[in-house]
Task: structure prediction
Amino acid sequence: MKSLDPEWVAAVRQQLGNWFRTAHRPLPWRTTRDPYHIWVSEIMLQQTQTAYVIPYYERFIQRFPTIHALAEAPLEEVLRYWEGLGYYARARHLHRAAQILVQQGGQLPREVGRLRELPGIGAYTAGAIASLAFNQPEPVVDGNITRVLARLLWLKGNLKDAGAQRTLWEIARQLVDPEEPGLFNQAMMELGSTVCTPSQPRCGECPLQTLCAAYQRGEPTAVPEPVPARRLVHAVDVSALIWREGQLLLAQRPPYGLWGGLWEFPRATRDGRETLETVAHRAAQKVSVQVEPMRLLGHVKHTVTYHSIRLYGYVCLFQGGEAHSDEYTALRWLTPEELDTCPFSAPQRRLAQIFLNTLPNPLW
Result:
């Protein structure tokens, strides 16, 4: 691609920097240059809204204030502090990367290439850590920045394809301010998050209004052009809440894949026209116990990537068998009061709460 006009680049840097110095939000990770704290914030902010992240970040840093503290903690505890944020692979990768770093001296590397060798750190996160924590002149490109660049330069087409992504990263590399790369990258993120929003951009408040091709055309929302969304796949799952003498049977998922390492009530997916009671029986079979389904507890809805799932809870009375499983990593019988000790996915936690509301008579 051609080089950007130097005068335009200089104007973008100056006007954006001046705006950010006075307009930025007072976020907790902006008060530190600690590379570890910045790393945690960037991982949490992936596909998660800023306001939602703040309390999780503060609790996480209070409990795991250093790389060593995180590396030494059990994964199950780390997942418990992550519970509710979703995308739990982020927590597993963060924990594993901390353990790797402790083996290498306990410090995050400054270079993008070495940062990307760590689990869970891709191009965007590496650029963010390098620029924000170490003042390295590295670019960042995410959804917000893609939108800003598309409007500034009137970029058409599918900006998610490989060729367009290479162009966006090259543009971002030319734009990043070598004197203040961290401030510039944060300013671009802030602009995309608070002003240059997808459907109702606040162009009247934008510091780059006079430099923006989309605004000059009077079509600020015409770019980036929408990409057809994948169709949702609908599924029905049933979790068996297996009750035995005041305890429930919990199962831990393997430490990889969806909800890896989290605990749940044994679950199965409905096949065709199966009754929910039949699916509850199949869920119990996964942990090798026999049950009598007693009553439907309720359901919760949730979406995971391109799957829309309706999750039912079925309260079942334990009838016999020695609990074991080839599918789950571990099994535990816990009292209702002990459920808080295990990390759950959000939908499983909601089922647990519905169950707790039925006490002291959970079977009827």
User: Anything to note?
Assistant: The CA atoms of residues 16 and 22 lie 10 Å apart. The chain has a mean pLDDT of 95. The first helix runs from residue 6 to 23. The chain has 14 helices and seven strands.
